[in-house]
Amino acid sequence: xxxxxxxxxxxxxxxxxxxxxxxxxxxxxxxxxxxxxxxxxxxxxxxxxxxxxxxxxxxxxxxxxxxxxxxxxxxxxxxxxxxxxxxxxxxxxxxxxxxxxxxxxxxxxxxxxxxxxxxxxxxxxxxxxxxxxxxxxxxxxxxxxxxxxxxx
Length: 152
Ligand code: FES
Hints:
Blueprint: E1 3-9, E2 12-18, H1 24-31, E3 50-53, E4 56-59, H2 65-69, E5 74-75, H3 77-80, H4 87-94, H5 104-117, H6 123-129, H7 140-151
Antiparallel strand pairs: 1-2, 3-4, 3-5
The protein binds FE2/S2 (inorganic) cluster.
């Protein structure tokens, strides 16, 4: 059985029909066609699915759709900018941080949330913020470089 659920996603009010408990990641990708958030582990452990819920980084694979509906805003990678002009996205492009690129959605969204909360962090703080975002290719050096560029 599905319920009608309203979400404020990337500044637009969207209606979806979802069973209670359905993961937000599934709703974003399968119902709303937003493929920025990636499915990695599905267990809240890798960070590939990270979105912003009321400005805070959240792992959408373990957020229930009704929890997201109670938030004032859900922002996915697509909501940062449509053309890569967001400063954090630009930093990741400048640093050529991607190898396969699968983890980068989560890296970008995590850095975005962190810099919004801590505008002038040192490298150690950035490293700590990204500690639980996993990259299987091992491009952590480039990812850190991107985070440092984004931090200014
Ligand atoms: Fe959500 Fe890994 S897919 S944390």
